[in-house]
Amino acid sequence: QVQLVESGGGSVQAGGSLRLSCAVFGSIFSIGTMAWYRQAPGKQRELVAVISNTGSTNYADSVRGRFAISRENAKNTVTLQMNSLKPEDTAVYYCNIRPLYGGGLWGPGTQVTVSS
Questions:
Q1: What is the pLDDT of residue 72?
Q2: 8 and 78 in contact (C-beta within 8 Å)?
Q3: Quick check: helix, strand or coil at residue 45?
Q4: What is the DSSP secondary-structure string of 32-100?
Q5: In angstroms, rounded to a whole number, what is the distance separating the alpha carbons of residues 59 and 61?
Q6: pLDDT confidence of residue 29
Q7: SS3 of 35, please?
Q8: 33-65 per-position pLDDT tens digit
Q9: Are 67 and 51 in contact (CB under 8 A)?
């Protein structure tokens, strides 16, 4: 079975940086998109950033210019570099992958807390 494991979450001061990583364990023959979502307490889960198999990226307006998503296909890993963090970035961040053949898989989530 395929398993996603996120790492890199933690607590930082406003203006700081964190680097999230999502490792895919198991057999994924052809990954389409890899993405990061986040969900703050009492709020809906929202898309933060997504990267396609061709390398194209999209970002939520709230993080564009501060966050950068990248993927390393040889390691089946997607990362999210988060800079200039703000308290409103506080949320549980979830990795999501979608194979080209359909379906999808979620990681268990990792907490990011940004204090003023």
A1: 87
A2: no
A3: coil
A4: EEEEEEEE-TTS--EEEEEE-TT--EEE-TTTBTTEEEEEEGGGTEEEEEE-S--GGG-EEEEEEEEET
A5: 6
A6: 73
A7: strand
A8: 999 999 999 999 999 999 998 999 999 999 999
A9: no
How many whole angstroms separate alpha carbon 103 and alpha carbon 82? 27
Q: Which of 60, 50, 57, 48 is nearest to 92 (CA)?
A: 48
List the structure tokens of 69.
């998503």
| 74 pLDDT higher than 80 | no
Q: For 9-34, how does the pLDDT look when each residue is reduced to its tens digit (9 = 90+)?
A: 999 999 999 999 999 998 777 889 99
Nearest Cα to Cα of residue 83 among 14, 5, 3, 7: 14
> Taking a C-beta distance cutoff of 8 angstroms, is the pair 70, 56 a contact?
no
- Phi–psi pair at 91, nearest 5 degrees: -175, 170
Q: Are 11 and 101 in contact (CB under 8 A)?
A: no
Check residue 33 and give its pLDDT.
94
- Percent of the chain scoring above 70 in pLDDT: 100
The tokens describing 10, both together, are: 């933690």
